[in-house]
Design a protein that fits this description.
This protein is of the alpha+beta class and about 160 residues long. The chain has a single domain (about 15-155), classed as Aminopeptidase (3-Layer(aba) Sandwich). It is built from 4 helices and 7 strands, in the order E-H-H-E-E-E-H-E-H-E-E. It has helices spanning about 20-30, 40-45, 90-105, 120-130; strands at about 15, 50-55, 60-70, 75-80, 110-115, 135-140, 150-155. A 7-stranded mixed β-sheet has the order 1-2-3-4-5-7-6. Strand 3 and strand 4 (about 75-80) form a beta hairpin. It is globular and about 40 Å long. The N and C termini lie far apart (about 45 Å). The relative contact order is 0.13. It binds coenzyme A. Coenzyme A (COA) binds near residues 32 and 129. Coenzyme A binds near residues 33, 116 and 126.
Amino acid sequence: MQNSCTQKAMYEPVAIHDKKDAPALAALEAQCFSSGWSVKQYEAVLTDSNYLIFALCDEKNIRAYVVAYHVQDELEILNIGTAPEYRRMGCAARLIRHLQENVCPRYAIRRIILDVRPSNKPALALYTRFNFVEAGRRRRYYAPDGEDALFLEWLRPQ
Ligand SMILES: CC(C)(COP(=O)(O)OP(=O)(O)OC[C@H]1O[C@@H](n2cnc3c(N)ncnc32)[C@H](O)[C@@H]1OP(=O)(O)O)[C@@H](O)C(=O)NCCC(=O)NCCS
């Protein structure tokens, strides 16, 4: 079965909203996170219009993705990941820029928020580069190790 990516260039973010893409998303997520969302979880969020999912693809498959949840004027980045062999090529940067420059104006979003492990240096460097700042810390947020979460926010310039 064709996935949603096959007609697009690698650096053009594609909106994903078809349940047929759930297996590819879950497979990539398993490469990026030790306890990521399952195919069933992706099937559920792909039918909920509050979730926005964007991907970058090569000619065959999803290579980077971002999952965000939006309510009113706020967008929360829930998951973002790039396939290991495609890292440090600007994929995550392209997706964050797409959220800030295109998605936020389209949905009248004023603030993007997210949680990140303080030990996740690549992710912290990514968010810092895109002007996210620390807005709080959630103690012992992550299971199973109990690492704190840094709560970051980006405010859309007025
Ligand atoms: C974090 C992650 C999404 C970055 O994806 P990526 O596509 O490799 O990132 P990019 O190539 O777009 O990098 C953009 C910027 O992020 C920063 N960055 C990304 N990876 C980095 C690394 N390993 N070390 C230091 N800085 C890094 C840099 O500032 C980089 O800009 P530069 O290459 O011009 O220096 C990727 O490492 C990943 O999938 N990690 C596992 C999942 C994860 O931890 N997600 C975040 C959860 S909060």
